[in-house]
Amino acid sequence: MRSISIVGVGLTKFGEHWDKGLKELIAEAGTLAIEDAGIGKVKIQAVYAGCMASGRFNGQEHIGALAADVLGLNPIPATRLEGACASGGLALRNAYLAIRTGEFDVALVVGVEKMTEVDTGDAGFALGGASDAETELFAGASFPALYALMAQAHMAEFGTTEEQLAAASVKNHKNASQNPYAQFRNEITVADVMKSGYVASPLKLLDCSPITDGAAAVVLMATDVARKMNAARKAVEIIASAQASDTLDLAHRNNLYETAAAKKAVQDAYRQAGISAKDVSFAEVHDCFSIAEIMAIEALGFCRQGEGGKFTADGHTAIGGKTPVNTSGGLKGDGHPVGATGVKQAIEAYWQLNNLAGARQVRGAKIGLTHNVGGSGATAVIHLYRKA
Amino acid sequence: MRSISIVGVGLTKFGEHWDKGLKELIAEAGTLAIEDAGIGKVKIQAVYAGCMASGRFNGQEHIGALAADVLGLNPIPATRLEGACASGGLALRNAYLAIRTGEFDVALVVGVEKMTEVDTGDAGFALGGASDAETELFAGASFPALYALMAQAHMAEFGTTEEQLAAASVKNHKNASQNPYAQFRNEITVADVMKSGYVASPLKLLDCSPITDGAAAVVLMATDVARKMNAARKAVEIIASAQASDTLDLAHRNNLYETAAAKKAVQDAYRQAGISAKDVSFAEVHDCFSIAEIMAIEALGFCRQGEGGKFTADGHTAIGGKTPVNTSGGLKGDGHPVGATGVKQAIEAYWQLNNLAGARQVRGAKIGLTHNVGGSGATAVIHLYRKA
Questions:
Q1: From CA B372, how far away is CA B17, in angstroms rounded?
Q2: What percentage of chain B carries pLDDT values higher than 70?
Q3: How many Cβ atoms are within 10 Å of A18's Cβ, its own excluded?
Q4: Above 90 in pLDDT, residue A1?
Q5: Which residues make Cβ contacts (< 8 Å) with residue A291, sequence separation at least 6?
Q6: DSSP codes joined into one string, A215-229
Q7: Mean pLDDT over all residues of chain B?
Q8: Closest CB to B129 among A55, A100, A101
Q9: Which residue, among A231, A271, A328, A280, has the nearest Cα to A6 in the 3D structure?
Q10: Do A376 and A131 meet the contact criterion of CB atoms below 8 Å apart?
Q11: Catalytic annotation on A62?
């Protein structure tokens, strides 16, 4: 099977970009990625764009063609992928599959979301399109409410505490404090989380990822072609790509305290790469809410089912711990421009495996994992990486 | 290269479905396609969904997972593609590419749009997301207006007449009158078109495709696997798949009377299949407006640049003519549920090549072409088909 690698990355600062629209965000991240790859934009043969809800946020669809246009890449094929907050991961995966066919050798993957053009209520409604709109969104269940139900189930089943949930946010803010691209660079304490207001019990404001603008891009290439073009110096190979689905609404799940799609996808990914959870040096996981990180590390096999809260509170997911998780700062610390998040996760893997993560560096990192989730878990996309 | 075929198809009636939502439309088309393939849904390994603007139309994103969910296909991967009105074609193309990798052998491709849940103004705004929202939609340029500019350019450059444009609509209504799935089964005359009200000069009401609800689905399989599973009886092979992009807005094009992305994509497709325009037995083209069909047949090489109006008025694109175009009724006659259209085009190719098109049958059809376009031409997706 053809080896495929990330050979360049570009990222905008995540945050509130009042002076930039979708186009400017895409142009910045895309241009930086092409520059980092050092190949010149004429070598790009296809664009894959991840974006969730630009129709509602910006009145703009057709994000693949938009990305090709603002980067001056016409007439190459340009395609948008959408899988709610997993849109970025899907863009990466579909570019990877297309390169595997030999249809292309080089693709630009860009994830983007510009969320601050609407007010918070409208943003919540737009994001609610990731749930089962008929049975959840229109019935009044916001995303914090859906994840709060999962948190309650996890607490009831396993005795997970609010302080343990808070530990995920505390760690992620600490990591974000070392990430110049992060939206929130302030460290917080468990006490800060505990005294922040309830959004949907047991989730408090500091358990929740924010509304964010941002874009992230990577250049993906067949590794042999990258070597021929002298573009493989920082190449990070994708050694597994897997995806699975679950019911869109919570009501039809077997239980609310585990994420079946992520479990399925990660098993597929480990099998593809011939590794197991203990071989993973670090992971970027989809902590849209603190409970999501707890459930993620259980699904990925870093700790046993039900022990994610304790595992986090005990520091095993901190940089220097058994399995560092969200060294970038995660969705909580970095911010969560939904379509960009899955691509940003891959960028952190690229930086870590190239020993470019500065104060966030995981020493001796060999294998990275990204876990990108759509909605309350209906889409899960897992990638594994190692230095090519 | 691996041979890949459509082995089953399913279509809802196109029209106003006041009693069906996104889920019901997907369930109907998807179930019919799986039944037609005769393989049982447990054989489906991935879902690719095409949908343009469900966020604005229905408050629902995450259409890939939704499709897997309503069809009971979890936990297989489910992915949504968006490229404005070319979303269906992109779903077909990405499923095709994924099967080419060997990642899957069998995929379900679903296109859907449920457009009547919002009023006409909001629908126009949602569709405007296919254009460059900043420079076109927000400036007041609706899609009829954008295509009217192209029609004016074509008329000025080549002397194309309003009566010639009308001939495309007249033919497409005639074909639709023989299609039980079509939204409009009434025949119309050139005089009817000419006396219908101007929407954006020179385009009149009967030059414009309508607002439509509908879904279309196909089962796509590696041809050798279909043969082993005795599912290849009606198999129609995809012998080429190509895609290209153009600027999102009209202002940056070299001219307004030709569609560069379609020209690029079709040349790629002809090269892949080793054929030329004269080998095409019939084509489904993207006649969102009558002028779009005229520009399409020129781009595809069925007639010379500038002669599309006369070629149409002379009957060369009618069933029985040199190159029958839009035997299904096209977007004008069948209706245009934007995400479904590209998949419906493939279904007409499947029916024609299986000699199942009834009164619309093109005798001796050997090679079919579908031409699916997003926006005012920024995305073009071309597929070629023959009986496997």
A1: 24
A2: 100
A3: 8
A4: no
A5: A147, A148, A150, A151, A154, A160, A165, A203, A207
A6: EEEEEEEEHHHHHHT
A7: 97
A8: A55
A9: A231
A10: yes
A11: no
d(CA A129, CA A57): 12
Task: Return the DSSP state at B208.
Answer: B
Q: Determine, for residues B130 and A62 on separate chains, whether the beta-carbon distance falls below 8 Å.
A: yes
Residue of B nearest to A82 (CA): B80
With CA atoms as reference, report the closest residue to B73 among B109, B100, B36, B22. B109
Residues of B in contact with A247 (CB under 8 A): 69, 74
Chain A stretch 93-112, residues whose beta carbon is closer than 8 A to a beta carbon of chain B: 94, 97-98, 100-101, 103
pLDDT digits (tens, 9 = 90+) for A305-347: 999 999 999 999 999 999 999 999 999 999 999 999 999 999 9
Closest CA to A264 of A288, A242, A239, A295: A242
B339 lies within 8 A of chain A by CB: no
As a whole number, mean pLDDT of residues A239-244 equals 98
How wide is the angle at C-alpha A219 spanned by C-alphas A243 and A346, nearest 5°? 45
Question: Is A278 exposed, middle or buried (CB count within 10 Å of its CB: 0-12, 13-18, 19+)?
Answer: exposed
B286 is a catalytic site residue = no
Pick B52's closest partner by Cβ from A56, A61, A249: A61
Q: Are A25 and A13 in contact (CB under 8 A)?
A: no
pLDDT at residue B12, rounded to an integer: 98
Residue holding tokens 């679903």?
B110
Q: Report the distance separating Cα A318 and Cα A324, nearest Å.
A: 5
H or E element at residue A363: none
**Nearest CB neighbour to A65, from listed B78, B128, B379:** B379
Tens-digit pLDDT profile for residues A367-376? 999 999 999 9
Residue with tokens 């491709």: B109
d(CA B351, CA B178): 13
Mean pLDDT taken over chain A: 97
CA dist B215 and A196 (Å) reads 46
First-last CA distance in chain A: 14
pLDDT at residue number B1: 87
ipTM exceeding 0.90, yes/no: yes
Eight-state DSSP code of residue A287 = -
What pLDDT, on a 0 to 100 scale, did the predictor assign at position A359? 96
Within 8 A by CB and 6+ apart from A159, the residues are: none
Say if B63 is an interface residue toward chain A (CB within 8 Å): yes
The token duo for B226 is: 């279909």
Catalytic annotation, pick one of A85, A208, A288, A303: A85
Taking the CA atoms of B379, B384, B385 and B388 in sequence, report the sign of the dihedral they define: negative
Q: Which of B17, B154, B316, B336 is catalytic?
A: B336
| Residue B106 φ then ψ, to 5° | -140, 125
Segment B94-150, tens digit of pLDDT: 999 999 999 999 999 999 999 999 999 999 999 999 999 999 999 999 999 999 999
Taking the Cβ of residue B124 and every Cβ of chain A, the question of whether any pair is shorter than 8 Å is answered with: no
- Say which amino acid occupies B302: F
Q: Are B355 and A43 in contact (CB under 8 A)?
A: no
Find the length of chain B. 388
pLDDT tens digits, residue range B312-322? 999 999 999 99
Residue pair A171/A312 in contact (Cβ under 8 Å)? The answer is yes
Residues A237-265 have a mean pLDDT of: 98
| pLDDT of amino acid A143 | 97
Given CB atoms, is A58 within the 8 Å cutoff of chain B? yes
Which amino acid is present at B144? Answer: P
Distance from chain centroid for Cα A331: 7
From chain A residues 234-273, the ones with a CB under 8 A of any chain B CB are: 243-249, 252, 260-261, 264
Sketch out chain A's domains with CATH numbers: 4-119+211-237 (3.40.47.10), 142-207+239-387 (3.40.47.10)
pLDDT in tens, B258-270: 999 999 999 999 9
| Average pLDDT rounded to a whole number, residues A34-58 | 97
